[in-house]
Amino acid sequence: MLFDRRMLFAALLTALVPALSVGSAAAQTAPTPDERVAALKQSLAENQARLRGYEWMETTIISLKGEEKARTQKRCYYGADGKVQKVAIDEAPKADAAAGGGGRGGRGSGRVKTKVVENKKDDMKEYMQRAGALIQQYVPPQPAQIQKVKDSGKLSIKPVEQGVVRLALPEYVQPGDQLTIDINAAANAIAAVNVATYLDKPEDTVTLDVKFATLPDGTSYTSQTTLDAKAKNIRVVVQNSGYRKATP
Questions:
Q1: Residues 142-173 pLDDT 10s
Q2: Residue 208: beta bridge partners?
Q3: Are 184 and 173 in contact (CB under 8 A)?
Q4: Interatomic CA distance for residues 93 and 69, integer angstroms
Q5: From CA 65, how far away is CA 213, in angstroms rounded?
Q6: Which pTM was predicted?
Q7: Are strands 54-64 and 67-78 parallel, antiparallel or unpaired?
Q8: pLDDT tens-digit profile of 207-237?
Q9: What is the C-alpha to C-alpha distance for residues 79 and 70, in angstroms, rounded to an integer?
Q10: If you classify domain 32-245 with CATH, what class do you get?
Q11: Rounded distance, CA 133 to CA 228, Å?
């Protein structure tokens, strides 16, 4: 019986050593942070070049306190200067409550109410323009900015699930912010992007959740972007769909 146990132990050891060696080799060949960042930068540049051959439809939905206020559609394509061009298809703002004069306040009261509504619309529009300009500094992630955060020593990389690693880039644009990029390790393609930042002051938080999808030729694109400005109770959802080769 002792002999049999020794033989069994030897057999198990013989089987395990090669497996352990393979695992060790795999660990040794895992990409370094430098290699991971270099591969991501190259992937971003190549993917961006392929996207320039497409046009698509962009649907933007703006909600205030959970109620949809406006929905717009635009045809998008890349211009000769390499920037995205957008052509409005239609615009369907939600009707506000009637502010006309027939109530006790009379016509003057109606005009005041209308002015208040218009001012609120202008304030929201101005705020969203500023928030949008801020977010454009994060999405799509810029290779040069990724390198800058890495060189500062603040970039971190860790696995979050099977086959997915997360790059965390604090102070990507301004102090106290953070950009995180989830990468499909096998394809070295972006799976998701999240941004936590703010306008003017840290308590004026703005967050961004970006989902990606893949076209038949392997080109990655942002399928849905959700912006939350909690301080203003504003949510903006941007959906991209209908990708096709751009017409000359």
A1: 888 988 999 999 999 999 888 899 999 999 99
A2: 195, 227
A3: no
A4: 6
A5: 29
A6: 0.69
A7: antiparallel
A8: 999 998 989 988 889 899 999 998 889 999 9
A9: 27
A10: mainly beta
A11: 14
